[in-house]
Amino acid sequence: MRIIIEKDYEAMSKKSAEILAEVVNEKPEAVLGLATGGTPVSMYRNLIDMNKEGKIDFSKVTSVNLDEYKGLSGDHDQSYRYFMNNNLFNHINIDKKNTYVPNGLAEDIEKECSEYDKRIENLGGIDLQLLGIGNNGHIGFNEPDDFLHMSTHLTGLTEGTIEANARFFDKKEDVPTEAITMGLGGIMKAKKILLIASGENKAEIISKLVEGKITTQVPATLLQVHPNVTIVVDEAAASLLKK
Ligand code: PGA
Asked: Which of the two ends of the chain, N or C, has the fewest CB atoms closer than 10 A to its terminal CB?
């Protein structure tokens, strides 16, 4: 694992945008695995600026997102499709037809999941997968459990995750309790992984991710066996790392 420590959230965001831009500049038709959440918002803002300045071209890029809440349509303001449109896709020169987010309203969820995986395979796999990390070590919505899933699947959200995400909704009861998420297999098959985290409240999970034992109870620890992982954190999130 390559660990890059930046001073603060803004510096972390700039650095991670540069790493993503390098991948696209090297391979203009790159397949990007993208993530939602509070953490990548400023990274996406940096990418929007870089796109306007001609420093990155998304015209040939395809994106696949990690997850989507079950039951929310793409125009619900808390859906991840809406988040991606608003925070990135509407402001860059990507062809929206080449942006994929699981369909939270799919009637046949199993079919939606298997088609999602097939699409990624047909695209030739993910060149760069961007990840945030939950306080409990979830990546995507792969929550701590005795067993983890290989493929895209429907999953229940833990109480802690529902609580963490309640800040985006009017009230906690509005947070969906299930989501479609790429599985650990889908994430681990990405050629390169970029995980970003910021703030003191991520310090403990970042130390487990980097220095802890590999366990399905902290799904992100599986990244320790991936051959090409870069972690960009700010000083606060790195504050419990030993070395
Ligand atoms: P956050 O979420 O970026 O809002 O902290 C990360 C995650 O839960 O994966």
From this structure: C
